[in-house]
Description:
Elements: E1 4-8, E2 11-15, E3 21-27, E4 29-32, E5 39-43, E6 46-50, E7 56-62, E8 64-65, E9 74-78, E10 81-85, E11 91-97, E12 99-100, E13 108-113, E14 116-121, E15 126-132, E16 134-135, E17 147-151, E18 154-158, E19 164-169, E20 171-172, E21 181-185, H1 187-190, E22 197-201
Antiparallel strand pairs: 1-2, 2-3, 4-5, 5-6, 6-7, 8-9, 9-10, 10-11, 12-13, 13-14, 14-15, 16-17, 17-18, 18-19, 20-21, 21-22
Amino acid sequence: xxxxxxxxxxxxxxxxxxxxxxxxxxxxxxxxxxxxxxxxxxxxxxxxxxxxxxxxxxxxxxxxxxxxxxxxxxxxxxxxxxxxxxxxxxxxxxxxxxxxxxxxxxxxxxxxxxxxxxxxxxxxxxxxxxxxxxxxxxxxxxxxxxxxxxxxxxxxxxxxxxxxxxxxxxxxxxxxxxxxxxxxxxxxxxxxxxxxxxxxxx
Length: 202
C-alpha cells in the first residue's frame, strides 16, 4: 500500500496504510506530480523526493525537479545548472547544461550550452551539437519529425539525425501547424528586394 502525506503544525509528513507515521512532519510542502511518480518534498527552498511507499529517495537538495519521463529520468537544477536523475535519485547525467527539457518518447532532450541549443540522448551524447540560437520544442514538429531551428539570422528545418532542409530562410513563424506546414519568409532566396512568404512542408 502507498503512504499518504499529512500536515501538522504547518509541516508535511507521511503515514503508512495503517496510519502510522513513517516520516515525521518536517517538510514545508509536499505534492504528487503524477500517479506512479515520487512525491516532491520541499524544505528551505530545496526539493527532494519521497517514494509512494514513504521512503526518502532524495533529501531536499535540488533547486527544482521535473517530471519523470518514460525512460525513468527527470531533469533537475542545482546552482543554475541542469542535469538528470533517475527514480532512485542518482545523478544519471551531470549538471552540464544551462537549461534542459524533458526527454521525449524517442529518448531525446533539448539542452542549452553556452547559449546554444542541441539534442542529447539518454547517454548524454549529443545527437545534434549545441550550435543553434533557437530550437523549437520537441513536441512542435511536423508529421515527419522535422523541427524549426535558427542559426544567427537564418532559419531552417532539422530532423533528429541532424539533417537540415531549406537553409537560408529569413523567418519562420514559430512551429509547424497540425497539417505539417509552417509559414516562412525567404526574401533573399525566393524574392528580389521584397519579402516572399511561402509554406514549407517536409
